[in-house]
Amino acid sequence: MYPVIVIRVRLALSRYKCVVQEFERAVIFRLGRVRKGGARGPGLFFVLPCVDTYRKVDLRTVSFDVPPQEVLTRDSVTVAVDAVVYYRIKEPLNAVVRVADYSASTRLLAATTLRNVLGMRDLAQLLSDREAISHMMQANLDEATDPWGVEVERVEIKDVRLPVQLQRAMAAEAEADREARAKIIAAEGEIKASKALKEASLVMIDNPMALQLRYLQSLNTISAEKNSTIIFPFPMDFLRTFLGGAGPSMSPSLPI
């Protein structure tokens, strides 16, 4: 008799008990009203049959991907942007009582907030200030979901996809910019080289032997490259002695 009663009591208790994990909380309703004391857990508690109902809420951080959103920036450029959001439940009672589905509501609000925040930015700001945009989006989401008991911990923009024509235009612009900088650097190099040649010519004028040494150095450079042809400069002053006595028909000034 007694063992049967004990077994029936155990079965009844096991049927109407609830175990809440360390990372969970349970909100209990008695006849449709929230029981005093707020969310319960972690641990073991019992509910009355046909009187009490409960709902468990997970307190761990949850992440989800925001689907790619077609966004028109402030400078009228259409881009596709997707992001990832991390949130957790900080008030289990509000998450159950004040919103029907906090997960779906947070996902829809994240997609809307992403479009609104990016619509106030230019394309250049969107590509360079991702961290600032992420912080702004996190602040807006956290403020909107606070009455639901949801805390948005982090928002990250994953990818920004540009139209193919815009990518080609930006690549052409970057290439033209690089070519312009290369020409400026080359022109500055020519200016410095001309100044150095001017100083070298002044030194050679003061010391004629410097020109001969420079000539020998040029021959050494040419011979090191294994060339079969050597250009040997012949001084024009040496020829003027012979050309001067040939007659008045010869031009007295010859190019040096």
Automatic annotation (TrEMBL):
Keywords annotated in UniProt: Membrane
Family: Belongs to the band 7/mec-2 family.
GO cellular component terms, semicolon-separated: plasma membrane
Keyword Membrane recorded: yes
Keyword Transferase tagged: no
Gene3D superfamilies, sorted: 6.10.250.2090, Band 7 domain
Recorded superkingdom: Eukaryota
SMART domains listed in its UniProt record: PHB (SM00244)
Localisation: Membrane
Name this protein carries in UniProt: Mechanosensory protein 2-like isoform X5
A Pfam family per the record: Band_7
Domain Band: 14-174
Principal cellular location given in the protein's record: membrane
